[in-house]
Amino acid sequence: MSEQLLRTIIEASLRAALLAAAVGALLLLLRVPRGAARHSAWLVVLVGMLTMPLLQWLAPAMPNVPAPRVLDVATLLPPSPSPQPVSRIASPDLAPVTQSATATARVRVAPASTTEPGRGPVMSWLQLAGAVYGLIALTLLLRLAVALRKVRAFMNSAIPIGDGLYESPSLATPVTVGAIRPRIVLPGTWNTWTETTREAVIAHERAHAKRRDPLVAVLTRLNACVFWFHPLAWWLERNLADAAEQACDEIALRAVPQPREYAETLLMMAAASRQAGGRIAWAGVHAEGSGRLSERIDRILEGSHPLSVSRARRWLVISASVIAVVVVVACRTEQPAASLAPLVMEESPETAAQRREFEQAQAVRKAAHDMTWEETARLEADWRRNREDLDALERLLFFYEPDISGTRTPEDPKKVAGRRPLILWLIGQHPDSLLLRELPGRIFGRTDWLMDPDGYEAAKKLWLAHAGRPDVSVQTLKNAAWFLNVEDKPLAEQLLLQGQRNYPMDSWSAALGRLYAQSIVGSNRFTLGNSVQSTDPNAARGEYATRVRATLDASRDAVLLSEAGGYLARNASLAKTDFDRLALARTYVERAVQIDPRSVRARYALDSLDLIDQSRSQQRLLTGVSPESIPGVIAKLPEDQRLPILVKRAGAEYLRAELANWQATQPQTPDEKLPGRIEENRQQAQASRQRSKKYAEDALTLAKSLSKHPEQTDAVFAATIALGANAFWDGDRETAVRHMLAAADVPPSTSGRLMSPTLNLSLEMKLIAALLKYGERDSVIEYFERSAETRPAERWRLLAAATAIRNGKAPMDYYRR
Questions:
Q1: Cα(658)–Cα(364) distance, rounded to whole angstroms?
Q2: Which of 615, 698, 616 lies closest to 650 in space, CA to CA?
Q3: Whole-angstrom Cα distance, residue 802 to residue 289?
Q4: In the chain, how many H helices and how many E strands?
């Protein structure tokens, strides 16, 4: 759990306590009696507490945030040359800036004196507290989900008896269940009750159903899951249940005028519950009450049960409680903006820990690779004396690891013989090991790297034996399917389907989609990444691939279809097929969108296909055209086609200039007799940047007349950022900031795409990182805060980015997705 999320939960719990205190004082001040009105007030507190983490983001303090501006594309065009000098920075270079300002770095303000003492241990405690909080909250939420599922099954088994009532022989007392559609269920003995008892019970339960008390009960338990550490959460659960019972008692007493008869009914229900040894859990609402039965009976017999409150007074209480929520949320202490100070790049504690862990793992791998055969023999002898020394086993497997390029070496037979028993032992004893999902822990059959058919068959038997056990784990099934996904795809499919049946809560459709896509193109070689490296045309036309296509054609699983189509589009570009790979991918993805229009996975895959089609079209258009001639080719296109390609070329030429500039700074080797190479690269960088600026300016001019174009706003944003990046490269920081802030006022696209064909987010990252490095912290903060006003869908993330920078940190995710 992140530090920021933990802080949000803690702050929300403190505000909830303040809200409860305010509403409690309000109830005392207005002298609201127990019952429905008091229940409504505490219900407002419950909803406020449950939504407090979200409300904190939706209504933060916003000092000095300018009002949203009306987009005027003309104002984004570069100004006319002016004789007045502009402020410049000596030798600005965006390339080295962005290399040091990656997403794994943080920005902090250089302190005036010393650093804060004890910061490291505090971060460690926060991380530990976050992990404990998340574990307990997840356990409680799983318990809640199981309980709701049981209640659902109970509702479905109830027998209707007319008049909206149901009967269940498993009940001892009546109960109202169902958060969405409340259902009154009576025990099998209901027909033995007296008429007075039936009237009282039914009146009480109908009141629960009408008031939606089962839904409130679920919300109180959900709130207790999120704020399990907060006494208020558990108090609200008890207090709302008690208030609900009192409110329903008021209604039931109207049906049973004699208080003693009603009290006897409650006692009878309580006795039936005790005799049966229990009742339906808290997900329902029960006639016998919330556990404070004696108090209720005393009030009923004494005639002190609450009187009805007028509708006007009840709404007064609710309105005042809502106002209390607004006041508590709005009371935020504004942090004054710190003065501009030199910025230094510093890794966050989380990033530093990840880097150290990675470097340590790489050091272990390198040391293992550098071992001699004699050292390996000694290490293996030690391991055989203590086979549970998994660190030693890992080092041995690293030593025997195949060459990452797949190159054959004379030592391959010796490596095969050495690694086979180690991997087989690991599969047999620790089938859940994550090392079995990596290259060092894989045994190859007849068609791959270190070929070992005998070892492969032995390993396959072990995996199938594990899979046949009734208690086989999720990770074992995933490891086994991963092992078999090259040479035994049908077996891998069976294991994934077995996992889907045994563990439906886990994600299996995505893995099946990738396996099906690999089968369709005939993938026949293991790859460290996700991309297909080698294919067999006969396998692509084989029986299994044909069956996979039929399965996909009949599937209604949007995740499966999205993943299969997306994999074919993005990861099978090297596959040689006798069918249109992209056309087939589009049929799967478009059907996934039809099945689940809200699926982000499906929409992302469809946008990827559109982006690939557009890139191919542009590539065909510009193939063989020199950079100097490209503007003329673009000028002949229709305006609606010209806009996106102008923006893409602006970004591409900027990146080309960056590469040429980097090449010009590299030292030349003594045998390199190219004295004009450095100057040539510099000239190429300058020419590319001039083209980048021209493309961006043309895009902004064209966008002014294409207000109805679906990519107009994205094009304006990208072109404006490109001009800002080029201005910074020129040393004109003032103009770079002006373009960045102008981009903040550009509204989001209305095309509905998750992947824009015009946005080049890397330039936004480069510009922000460069401006931060050179001291423009306040300007970048203003950029994010103005962007939050323009793009409400991303408001919480943009404001979080501004807050992080104000606190001396660069957020991990400050770019638009």
A1: 36
A2: 698
A3: 50
A4: 31, 7
